[in-house]
Amino acid sequence: MEKEQLMKQSIEARNNAYVPYSKFPVGAALLTADGKVYLGCNIENAGYSLTNCAERTAVFKAVSEGDNKFVALAVSADTAGPVSPCGACRQVLAEFCPPNMPVYLTNLKGDVQETTISELLPGAFSTEDLKYAARE
Ligand SMILES: O=c1ccn([C@H]2C[C@H](O)[C@@H](CO)O2)c(=O)[nH]1
User: How many Å from the N-terminal Cα to the C-terminal Cα in the chain?
Assistant: First the structure.
């Protein structure tokens, strides 16, 4: 099943996480409309604020390869409950993913929260807001 497979891939994506500071590997698996899966992990930096989260790594990999039609996302970490994407990732996901796109948040115990992009960031700032400012 797509959901189970994607969650499994997001757990495997944690293996490449570069997390010398937090020691908190996160994995993401982003499914495209034509069936390709982009994996992402978090990549930290000695300048802590330069850290890139797993979710944004997956999105940026896909977009930079010319893929920007997404249909599902799974995110995994070793958390008490299903992992919660940070605010920056929610905003980036809202830019590229359909509002009703399923997002599977999970952890290593197998807890799953099935949500959507718009549930993760209701009222996201978007390209529509920019269009209003540019009106003549
Ligand atoms: O959804 C999340 C939450 C956190 N992190 C990363 C950022 C940092 O490397 C570490 C601790 O915040 O986890 C992610 O990659 N995704």
Answer: 49
Residues whose CB is less than 8 angstroms from the CB of residue 47 and which lie 6 or more positions away in sequence, other chains included: none
> What CATH architecture does domain 2-133 belong to?
3-Layer(aba) Sandwich (3.40)
Choose the residue to mutate in 15, 44, 53 for probing ligand 1, maximizing ligand atoms within 8 Å of C-beta.
Answer: 53
pTM of the predicted model, to two decimals?
0.96
Q: Tell me which residues have their CB closer than 6 angstroms to ligand 1.
A: 19, 22, 24, 26, 42, 44, 51, 53-55, 75, 83, 85-86, 89
ipTM value of the model? 0.98
Cα-based distances in Å from 68 to 32, 45, 81, 89, 119: 7, 27, 29, 16, 20
